Structures are given as structure tokens and as C-alpha cells.
Amino acid sequence: MVRKILLIGVGILAALAVAGALIVPRIAHDVARRQVERMARNWGLHVMDMDVAVGWDTITVRNLHMVAPGFSAKIREVRLPSWKITRVLTPSIRVGEIFVDGVVVDGEIPPAWHRKRRENAAGIGGKRLAWEKLTVSGIALDVEDREIHLVTRDGGLKYSRAGGGHLDLTELQLKSPWLPVYFIDAATVITTAGHEIDSVKLAGLVWPFSKDFQLYTATAMLKPEGSGQLSFAVEGRFLPDRGTLVANGLYDRRSGKLVSHAELQDAWVGLLIPPTMPVQNREAARFSGKVDLTRAAGVSDVTADGRLTGVTVFHPRIAPEALRDLGATFSLIARHDAGANLLDIPQLTFTHGKLAARASGRVRRDPETRKLQLTADLEVPRMSCADAVAAFPPQLVPNLRQLTLGGTVDGRLHLFIDFARLETEDARLSGKIDLDRCRVLQAPPALRATRLMHDFGYSVVEPGGQRVGVEVSADNEWTRPLEEISPYMVAAVLTTEDGAFWRHHGFITSEFATALTQNLRARKFKFGASSITMQIVKNVFFERKKTLSRKLEELFFTWYVEQVVSKRRLMEIYLNIIELGPDIYGVPRAAQHFFNKNPLDLTVREAIYLASILPSPKKRYAFYCNQAVPDYWNRALDRLLAIMKRRGRITAEEYDAAVAETLTFDPVEYTSRDECFRMIRRYQGK
Predict the structure, then answer these.
(1) Residues 473, 577: contact at Cβ < 8 Å?
(2) Strands 92-94 and 129-130: what pairing?
(3) Residue 374 pairs with which residues in a beta bridge?
(4) C-alpha–C-alpha distance, residues 381 and 379, integer Å
(5) Within 13 A of 585's CA, how many CA atoms are on the CB side?
(6) Predicted pLDDT at 163
(7) CATH for 443-684, among 3.20.20.80, 1.20.1050.10, 1.10.150.20, 1.10.3810.10?
(8) CA-CA distance, 559 to 585, in Å (whole number)?
(9) What's the CA gap between 370 and 373, in Å, rounded?
């Protein structure tokens, strides 16, 4: 009986074993297939094809192909070794480790992936496949997601539920409008056991700033710091051979706040120079120093300390020659508020040679007109005059470089320009450059102010190429002492040219802002704030070139001449050298040419006429060619006469006589109208 029962039991167990051998693999096959299909649905994919093979020791899924609109994922093989079935009513598979090989993903990431990532982060979703470790090899990606296009040649993943893992990708190509990186040699993503990213290490990054300027970073590290913050560290070099960069910082993904620190060595900054600026050889422009940036809510705060070198500037309106190898050591604090259209620079200090200066400024853009409002202040503390001149490029002040200077100088300037109201409001320019402690110890003979105290001469090259000699000497028939020139002529030029001549020290400071405004309106260097002394200086010492170089030297030599030469002598020189027509220099020559008179005998109206044509003597010589002063010009002369009377430069009787007078040109030197106009064109270079 017992033997019979044992035989029955053995038979039942054998039957169960046979049934298990037949049924369990089938259950595993179905569970594996359903799990793959379920996983695909959760990620917004549809399984197009797969082969599932179940053995006693390994489950293998081959040729898995999953798709979504515009997306494809292919996996060559998935192996689940040492598997077993757990639970009976709701069967599931448990394995120790999953091996995946040959993953090819192509196309645009389905929207469901973003939802699934959020669910995984929140711990949502059940599992029919339990595993402890995951190993993936042969990852190749060509995917697009939210304006990012990522291509990788190869990659692998090792992950453990207990300890996290790492994803390694090689030869990444990345395109994104907001991430200026297009190639990465290798990337390693370290994750925690809870699927959180611990750090991202990148190697061999190429950042394309322009077609011919790139940053290669040997290493870059990104690390989440909790509460949505991400720290980063970058070290690299600019290509080709354009300096090095070391940077680090912290980015808050929730608030958008960025805090960064960068150190640059010999970094190329030519790319940052606007193309409209007259900078030559931009390749040589380099910066070495530190830059700190904090950006949040549309406001950027910048602190920079460093040295700029290798800048070369050329524009014919600046100087005849290029200003080479410009540079300075500087410290900058600035804030840019995008919402307020405001750039504020509360502090800028810079040093070049022995020149140390402080500046500040503000630029605001009008939201309606889109035009700028500029405020700027500059201060130069007291320093040696010789050091101040030495700080300027030699091409900018070639004549000043020939002087030996003593004493000290300091200065301060304030500038305000509202471009939105420039047509109705003048720019404001104020301040003072204190040269009074400067002394010219030695100068070449041609540059000495004392040459004006004696007989001298110089030449003028006309626009037409004619070289005209001008001589102020007792031997010249057209040179007269001041007492032999009509006092009305002195009163006339004081009215039209320089009303404060006897009081100022060479400069009409109020006219600087007016000239600046006129030049800005004309959008070119057209007007100058020239006093009588400045006109003498630019004619006697310099060529007729409207450049910044000439203007700077003109300002210094005006001060220099005023220290040496008396006002009376300056007025005498001026009236003997001013241009009043083609090849007509000086009032004595003009009095003879226009009126056949001795300069002492000029009437009030004749004197104011000569003064009125001073700004454009060749152009207004046309009045003489026509042998008549037009009515509109006579009305202008009457207005000038009224100003002379109001300012006490002529009496009421002299005014009445001048208004009643009719100007008549003397015809002695007149040839013909055609020849007269031809001469104008020749001297104008037309």
C-alpha cells in the first residue's frame, strides 16, 4: 500500500515537473512580451517587431523595434540571465541583471517621454519586471528634443538600483540656439540610486562663438546642488591659439539666477569689438584678467579687472597714422537692466603708462524712440604733464611729443547727450583741464610760442593743391600793426568770432558743447569751437586737417601761446593772417582787393562784411564774382550791426550810418565773372 502511494506521488511530481517545464517558460515568454509592450506604451511607443526566446537560464529579446510619429528606437538584443517567476496569480519576472546591446535611437522625442520622466521622479507606476542591475552597450543617438539636436556615435550605461550608476557617451554633436556647444569628445553622467543626476563630466568640448573663433575646453563639470541649483566648472583654450579660460559658477534653474567667475589669459576680444569701430588687426586685441557675472531677472552685474592690449585704431578723422598697440589696465563695475533699457557704470578706473583716470557713466535707451541718453564723467587726478603727454599714442600727439614739459596737470569732464532731443536741446559739456601748473621747458624752433612775438611765416596748402605763403613781418606790404587797422574790424571779429577774446585764456568753453551738438546733428566732424587764439594756432602750427589729433594738439598749443603772447599781439596776428578769399590772407590785403582801401579806412559795414565771410571765405567770394552783395546777406549784416550796437561796440550814430550804407566792390582787380568762379573752383579743388 505504501509502495503504491509512493509511486502515485512520484508520478504526480513527475507530471508537475513536466507541466512546469512546459508551462513556466511559456508564462515567462508571455510576461516578457507583455512587459516590453507595456513599457513601450508608457513611453508613447508602439512595438513594431521583436523576437522573444526563453530558456531555463536566460530570456532573450532580439530585434526590438519601437516607433512613434517621427521617432524610432531599435535594440539589437536584451538578455535577462538567471530569471525566475515570482507570484502565481499575477506573474512577474525577477532577474539580477539586465544586459542590453545595440541601441539605436533616431528622431524627435515623443511628448510622453517628458511625462514619464516626471512619473519616475515621483515614484509612479508598477513593475512586472524586477531587476537589480542594468548594463547597456552600443548606444547611438540622433535625437531632437525642445530645440536640442543630439548625435552620439557610441555610449554605454551601468546602473544599480542600490548604488546608482553612470552613462558614458562619446563623440557628441550638439546643436541648440541657447547652448553654444556643438562637439563633445566624451560625456559621463553620474546618477544616484534614486535616478537623480549627481554630476555630469564633459571632455573635449568645442564652443563655436563664430566661424573662426571657438573655445575648446578640456574638461567641464556640471553638478546639481539641490533646490534646483547647478554648479559648473570649465577649463579650456580659445582656438586657434587665442588664449585660455578657467570658469566656474552656480545656476539656479528655478529662478534663472546665474553667478559665475572667469579668469582669462591672453584671450582674443576682437569678436567683441563692434564692426563699425575703426579697429585694425583685431586678431592682436587681447584681454587678461578676471570677470565676475551675476544675472537674475533681466539684471546683469559685472565686475572685471584686467588688462587690454594689442588694439590698433585707424580712421582719417582721428589721425593720419594708425594708433598702434593701445592698451590699458582697468577695473570695471557695471550693471545692465534689460527691462529698464539701462546700462550703468558706476566705476571704471584705468591706467595707461603713468596716466590713471576714473570714469563713470550711464546709458539709457528711450523705449519709444529707441534713442540713447548718455551721461559720462571723467576725472584725471593730478599728475606730471610730461607723463600725461607720454600716455597718449605718439601718432595722436606727434608735436606734443617733441616738447619738454614740467609741472603738473589734472582735469575733470562731465558730458550729457540726449539723442532723442538732440534737435531741440544741446549736449551738455562741462569741467576743467587745469594746465596752469604746466610749463614748456623746451621746444623745437618751429613749435615755440615765442616765434609769434617776432616776424614769422608759414605756408598753406589749399584744397586745390596750391601752396600759399603767408608772412607776418615788417617787410611784407600786407602786414600792418594793429593801430593801422580799423578798430571797426576788431569790433567786427569780436562780434562774429570771439566775443570773450580779451577775457578768456584761449578757450570759449561754452562753445565746446555747441560744437559737439552741431557735429552730432551733422553726423560728422564739421564744426569746431575755435577762439581767435585757436584759429591762429591751427593756421600757424598745423596743417589744415580736421582730425582729433590736430584738435588735441591745438588745445594744448592754444594754452601754450596764451601763456607767452599778449592779447594785443594775438589780435594783430589774427587780422593779418585770416583767409578772406582765394589767395587773400589778412585784412590789409582784403581791404585793398574788395574796396581798394587802406585797412585803417574800412567803414563799419565793410568791416562786418569781411567778418561775416570768415567761416567760408571761398564759397562767399561768389558775392564778389557777382559784384554785388545779395539782399539776404545784407539783412544778415544788419542783424550783426544791431548786435554790435547792443554790445556797445559801435555807437547809435555809427550803427545808423552803417545800416544806411550800400556796399560796393571795387572793380580794379576784377577780371570777369567766369574767371572769378573758375578761380573759386580751382582753390576749392573742384
Answers:
(1) no
(2) parallel
(3) 363, 417
(4) 6
(5) 23
(6) 78
(7) 1.10.3810.10
(8) 24
(9) 10
Q: Whose CA is closest to 581, among 570, 569, 589?
A: 589
The H or E element containing residue 434 is: strand 428-434
Residue 180's pLDDT is: 60
SS3 content of the chain, % helix, strand, coil (to 5): 30, 40, 30
pLDDT score recorded for residue 118: 52
For helices 652-660 and 631-646, give the axis angle rounded to 10 degrees: 180
Distance CA 676, CA 464 (A): 15
Peptide bond into 111 cis (omega under 30): no
Residue 359: what pLDDT? Answer: 94
Residue keyed to cell 517621427: 70
- Nearest Cα neighbor of 666 from 631, 632, 624 is 624
* Predicted structure pTM score: 0.74
Distance CA 39, CA 48 (A): 13
Contact 279, 253 (CB under 8 A): no
Q: What angle (nearest 5°) sits at the alpha carbon of residue 260, between those of residues 256 and 263?
A: 160
Q: What is the mean pLDDT of each run of 10 residues along the chain (686 residues)?
A: 38 38 62 81 87 84 90 89 65 76 89 64 48 86 80 87 84 71 78 75 78 77 74 85 89 86 92 85 92 93 95 90 92 93 94 93 88 90 94 93 94 86 77 87 95 94 90 93 97 94 83 68 62 93 84 92 96 97 96 97 97 94 96 96 96 96 94 94 90
Question: SS in 3 state form for 17-82?
Answer: HHHHHHHHHHHHHHHHHHHHHHHHHHCCCEEEEEEEEECCCEEEEEEEEEEECCEEEEEEEEEEEC
**The C-alpha cell that represents 105 in the structure block:** 535611437
